[in-house]
Design brief:
single chain; alpha+beta; Alpha-Beta Plaits; Chitinase A, domain 3; 5-stranded antiparallel β-sheet; 4-stranded antiparallel β-sheet; 9 strands
């Protein structure tokens, strides 16, 4: 017996279903829930578990109806979706619920479904190529950076140059508090204002300079004036490639072995970077070849997810989001095209997976779950239960399937899984 009274299109990839739950099913669930309440009910004049159903319904009618709806709506929505072979992208919005005595339960479900995708060329891609071997210059620069990270910083009686660390006192012109503020930084570092770095360059301890910093653009731009006094100049004394120094990074028999390991790491990083660029280029070309309309709700949720990721990244860097005065509306407008590309890439990969019969085997899935559990230092079964309860278990398998499809499209070995989830 069909439970769907009607179904119609109400927007791009958006269906509206009117669903009927038969009266006998409603009555049976109502009796079941009423009985459960009756076993727990405490009503004056009645022993626990002996309260008549009519009295239970009188005292807990609203609560009973709510629980009946919470049980029946998801159950019959799933039946309706299966009956109409729908592939929802998210749970439905439920509207116009009608629950009356001795009558069927009626409700409307509005759901966003996958667009129909007619596959085009997904075999041939123009992908970037690059030499991933470490150059001598890259090796020397990396070794120098490692030596610098373990350098001794020694005060010097000369003017400051790029690469030195200076300790300074700063005073902003017109500041309410004229007390000098102490600061220490490396000249030329991209973490330091360019203006303050330039002002301190060429000064020795005890010398001063002033500089201006422009903030903002156009008519709203402002200029701040500062006075800077150098207190100390320090230069790096780099350690030699001695066994003691090499021991900070592992067991190496010689400086040559250490440099070979540095070269290997540089090459691995370059391969990872190239692989990421190839994947993104391939996904961009797939999206370009498969235009489609997307449900507004799905785009909105994806945009919100991108903003949440951005906010979490700022918070991890110590940014106070309440004081940052971020225009989230503008940020959302900027993030929307990226959200649309991410959704389209996922949908296309899912369609290719279906077409090419790319599947994640049970053994493969269990191994990935066990690895994830080890990384989180929790038992595998506990992780499985948590992901299942939150509805993320199916999402994990879907991401693995997309990763496998990406490797298939890039012509990589089936087992060469990347660290990040494809088109996530």
């Amino acid at each position: 017996m069909s439970v769907v009274l009607s179904m119609e299109e109400v927007g791009p990839c958006r269906k509206q279903l009117r669903i009927e739950v038969p009266q006998p099913a409603v009555a049976a669930e109502m009796a079941r829930v009423t009985g459960e309440y009756g076993k727990r009910a405490r009503i004056p004049g009645f022993r626990k578990g002996k309260v008549p159903p009519a009295m239970v319904a009188k005292h807990f009618g609203k609560e009973i109806e709510q629980e009946v709806l919470e049980r029946l709506l998801p159950r019959y929505w799933k039946q309706a979706a299966a009956e109409k072979s729908l592939d929802p992208l998210a749970p439905p919005a439920v509207e116009n619920v009608e629950l009356k005595p001795d009558a069927p339960l009626l409700f409307t479900a509005v759901v966003e479904v996958r667009p129909e995708i007619e596959l085009r060329n997904f075999r041939d891609f123009a992908l970037p190529e690059a030499d991933t071997e470490a150059t001598r210059e890259e090796i020397e620069r990396a070794v120098a950076d490692l030596r610098r990270s373990h350098a001794d910083w020694t005060p010097v009686e000369r003017t400051a140059a790029i690469g030195d660390v200076v300790r300074v006192e700063l005073v902003e012109a017109g500041a309410a508090d004229p007390t000098p503020q102490a600061a220490e930084f490396e000249l030329g570092s991209d973490r330091v204002w360019e203006e303050v770095s330039s002002a301190a360059t060429g000064l020795a301890a005890g010398q001063s300079a002033s500089f201006a910093r422009k903030e903002g653009e156009g008519e709203s731009a402002t200029e701040r004036q500062f006075e800077l006094r150098v207190v100390e100049v320090r230069e790096a004394r780099l350690p030699e490639l001695t066994p003691e120094f090499l021991g900070h990074f592992g067991k190496f028999e010689s400086a040559e072995a250490f440099e070979a390991d540095v070269a290997r790491r540089i090459a691995a990083a370059k391969r990872d970077e190239l692989r990421a660029r190839r994947e993104q280029t391939m996904l961009d070309q797939l999206v370009e070849r498969h235009p489609m309309e997307l449900p507004e709700g799905v785009v909105h949720r994806e945009t919100e997810e991108l903003l949440r990721e951005y906010a979490e990244g700022l918070a991890r860097r110590g940014v106070d989001l309440e004081k940052a005065e971020i225009d989230w509306q503008s940020m959302g407008d900027q993030a929307r095209p990226h959200a649309e590309r991410r959704i389209k890439a996922r949908l296309i990969l899912d369609r290719i997976s279906e077409s090419e019969k790319v599947e994640v085997g049970q053994v493969e899935f269990e191994e990935a779950l066990a690895l994830l559990a080890r990384m989180q230092n929790v038992p595998t079964q506990a992780l499985r239960q948590r992901l299942d309860q939150s509805g993320e278990l199916a999402g994990l398998r879907a991401r693995m399937r997309r990763e496998k499809t990406v490797r298939f499209l890039l012509g990589e070995p089936a087992g060469a899984a990347p660290d990040a989830a494809a088109a996530d």
